[in-house]
């Protein structure tokens, strides 16, 4: 893929995408899903949904075990991958293509792992940030097509002034 020098606009978009990926990692600590057995309901974060099946805490290990565990691990790994792609890739367009794919996979994971009646604040904010990331990645891809005019050499400037 062709390397292009980063402009101010693309740099701002890239930094905004990095901040949104960090926000998504932070949202994994907020209440994400509500679980209950009919009489008692608890809100669980993504990290508690990972921790409890691994170490046998609570009722989560009896609910689904590994099937419950895997989507939540991916919900933590996807923003980490996206953050490092955005932070380290300055010249190529790979970060934008991967951001769109990560957003698609992330929204599909949230909607398939969290039932509609049990969705909480963390899941809603993550879905919204994935949508924003998709728009930012698309804007970054389109800004790459926008060519800035080359500066006029000094010799030609002198000719134009005469």
Question: Would you write up a description of this structure?
Answer:
It is a single chain. With 162 residues, this protein is mainly α. The chain has one domain (8-161). The protein has helices spanning 8-27, 46-55, 60-63, 66-88, 94-113, 121-145, 154-161, and strands spanning 33-36, 41-44. Strands 1-2 form a two-stranded antiparallel ribbon. A hairpin with a 4-residue loop joins strand 1 and strand 2. Helix 1 (8-27) packs antiparallel against helix 6 (121-145) and helix 5 packs antiparallel against helix 6. The longest helix has 25 residues, at 121-145. The model has no long low-confidence stretch (mean pLDDT 81).
Secondary structure: elements and pairs:
Blueprint: H1 8-27, E1 33-36, E2 41-44, H2 46-55, H3 60-63, H4 66-88, H5 94-113, H6 121-145, H7 154-161
Helix pairs in contact: 1-4, 1-6, 2-4, 4-5, 5-6
Our measurement of the CA-to-CA distance between the termini, rounded to an integer number of angstroms, reads: 42 Å
Q: What percentage of the residues does DSSP assign to strands (E)?
A: under 5%
Q: What is the domain total for the residues?
A: 1
Low-pLDDT stretches: none
What shape does the CA trace take?
elongated
- Report the major sheet: 2 strands, antiparallel
Derived structural class: mainly alpha
- Supply the number of helical segments: 7
Helical proportion? 55-70%
Q: What Rg is obtained from the alpha carbons, in whole angstroms?
A: 22 Å
């Amino acid at each position: 893929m062709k390397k292009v020098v980063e402009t101010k606009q693309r740099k701002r978009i890239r930094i905004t995408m990095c901040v949104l990926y960090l926000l998504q990692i932070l949202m994994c600590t907020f209440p994400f899903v509500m679980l209950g057995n009919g009489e008692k309901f608890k809100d669980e974060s993504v990290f508690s949904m990972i921790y409890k099946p691994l170490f046998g805490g609570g009722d989560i290990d009896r609910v689904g075990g590994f099937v419950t565990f895997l989507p939540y691990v991916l919900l933590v790994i996807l923003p980490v991958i996206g953050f490092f792609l955005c932070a380290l890739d300055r010249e190529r367009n790979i970060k934008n293509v991967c951001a769109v794919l990560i957003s698609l996979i992330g929204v599909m994971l949230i909607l398939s792992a969290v039932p509609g009646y049990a969705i909480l604040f963390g899941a809603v904010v993550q879905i919204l940030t994935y949508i924003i990331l998709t728009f930012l990645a698309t804007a970054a891809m389109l800004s790459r097509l926008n060519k800035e005019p080359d500066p006029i050499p000094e010799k030609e400037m002198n000719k134009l002034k005469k």
